[in-house]
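Category: protein sequence paired with discrete backbone structure
Discipline: computational structural biology
Format: plain text, a pair of labelled lines
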Amino acid sequence: MSTHQTLLALDYGTKKLGVAVGQTLTRTATGIAVLPVRALEPDWAQLDTIIQRWKPDAFVLGLPFNMDGSDSAMTTRARQFGAKLQERYHKPIHGVDERLSTREARDISRQNAERAGKRPNDRALVDALAAQLLLEGYLGN
């Protein structure tokens, strides 16, 4: 990893794609968007806009392994999505184990809502937070 890269993390799902941006210099990440996924395809136009804005040097893609470390059907779908990313944007893709990242994101979202005296009702924020957690893990935070 070079000293300064902008990275885009993607938490691929069959209905939503969580997106986070971060950089290697500060080793920070922020959830920025949740895009719809229809028929296993993300909204490519929205993803194009995000990529044009942030100009990532590489992608970090969550790979949802089974708890025993084996591939699941979603691992295969995420890898297929990664191949399409590579073909479309010609950027390196770093796959990371995302087991339990969505559960952790839900827990954090619920705790933050409780602290603020609100109900945790924004599912979209959970998907962006899951992508953020993937990227933070990749950056070693």
Notes: The chain has a mean pLDDT of 87. The beta strands are 6-12, 16-23, 28-38, 41-42, 58-63, 93-97.
